[in-house]
């Protein structure tokens, strides 16, 4: 059959014209307004006739195929009921084999058997139009040089996993076929098995299309794939509005949008990203609007997220059967987002965002984990945006690492692809990099706002800060439409964190004090308290700063109290309430930072005298300033409330060797 097909496929329309006649001879139909066409860009496809005088209106059935030409498991078993019947057309697989291997494997071997029959097969007019074993372009058919174009992506590992699964299934099934005494089982080779499974994963429809001819009790929800000759001819177009309608005797393809003369009639495989399209169908789409990157998180069972997931399944047992976590990074044009939702969810799927916030949450935030059937998240309330900012920081770092991985693995590639497989792989790879880079711009935008202490959230303030943020992107990095769409994503929805200025470097913390107190506080803290062996230890310095601010906010000096902002006093009250004061002095098991702080506290009286000299007159000996138990407390609070953020996240857009530097900042929530 293969040699005959090679000759036939020199004229691809001849084979498809024959297919059309065959389907029509069994009761199928193609609308007069459409025809099968071919060109180098789209291959064989369906289109409205160029000379058709009018627009083809929506709700037009452009193709219908009778149930008698479909191929499925029901054909393999010669299924018959009061509702309908399906013939095996001369291929009789042993009953012991069918019972031993199950639905999917039976269909796979049934397809191979008819392929081997060549022109003697009932489905020969259909099979000759399918891609042949040497023409498949999914990654399992990639050569060594083709695979090089996929390095650094998730596809090689996914391909190896699929190959192993199918190889194991094949060995089991071919052994069952031999044991059943099937004559000629040797012809069912691994190559044909790989081809058949690829055909089924790329072209098969759900068994629901056969519902009118199969008893409900015989129609399982999963495991049965149906090949629909002619119906599967149209190419995929994301967001194409079509519908397959199963009738009592046929299956029809209905267009749900008007089509103009000469316009291609496309199918819609669903919102597939380029990874799914390449893995299952063997092609990719440049600027695929429904593209996204799948993110895998390692979740330890004893982690906060692992325990929350286990608890969710206890509460909602039906979720145990669902294995997809929906952890995605979306492209900036992704059209299927929920109508409402924070800006960050337009680029990071809600499930991934929530998972990251739990993974980055501190102990006090984890007390606010909410478990519902649809989600696991941290309650949005005062003081919980820290986990969101920490999650976004980790997202930025992961995106940078992934960009560098993809770019690094492409350094030794040829300047241009050598074949169609490599072209598809390049489109996929470049799409992943663009997704990462645009997501990085948006995730780091929220971090930039959290670091902004001058401009407010007014339109002018946001516009000024956004222009500054976008100016860090080198000209020509992205096409104009992607730059424009990135800005729209930032501006069209409110951020998960609506207020600016919740992350502080050490020196910036004094902004929380009234202006009259800032100068003496900085003079004393930086010139005196920070002058010692602890001055180079960020953990110690943040603890000292927290201790100083808490002592100031809780002073008995009424004149100072009258000047303090509600933001500072509420934050201090919140911390004192959330973190219990440690009992007793720090012991030998205390951290190095705590031991340094204990040593500093021994000279407390001297520091208090210096404070008064510098104008800090509101910290008497009865205050919390440099009290040993409060220093130990401040060290615990500082460790829990700090966030590590990337210093220059957009540097990866400028150079292939970014610094990847991180800095510690302290979280102080806005009111």
Architecture overview:
By secondary structure, the chain is an alpha+beta fold. It has 3 domains: 2-129 and 204-279, set domain protein methyltransferase, domain 1; 293-501, no CATH class; 503-646, no CATH class. Helices cover 44% and strands 10% of the residues. It is built from 24 helices and 17 strands. The protein has a 4-stranded antiparallel sheet with strand order 1-4-9-8, with helices on one face. A 3-stranded antiparallel sheet has the order 2-3-10, with helices on one face. Strand 2 (34-39) and strand 3 form a beta hairpin. The chain is elongated, with a radius of gyration of 33 Å. The termini are far apart.
Overall geometric form? elongated
> Number of helical runs?
24
CA radius of gyration: 33 Å
Structural class: alpha+beta
Q: Order of strands across the widest beta sheet?
A: 1-4-9-8
Instruction: Give the amount of beta strand, in percent.
Output: 5-15%
Helix content: 40-55%
Question: How far is the first residue's CA from the last residue's CA?
Answer: 75 Å
What is the count of distinct domains?
A: 3
Secondary structure layout plus pairing:
Layout: H1 2-8, H2 12-25, E1 29-30, E2 34-39, E3 43-48, E4 60-66, E5 71-72, H3 73-76, H4 95-101, H5 103-117, H6 124-127, H7 144-147, H8 155-179, H9 190-203, E6 205-206, E7 225-227, E8 242-246, E9 250-255, E10 264-265, H10 274-281, E11 292-294, H11 304-315, E12 328-330, H12 350-360, H13 363-366, E13 369-371, E14 376-378, H14 385-409, H15 420-450, H16 459-470, H17 480-491, E15 503-504, H18 515-529, H19 538-553, H20 558-563, H21 566-578, H22 592-601, H23 604-613, H24 628-641, E16 642-646, E17 662-667
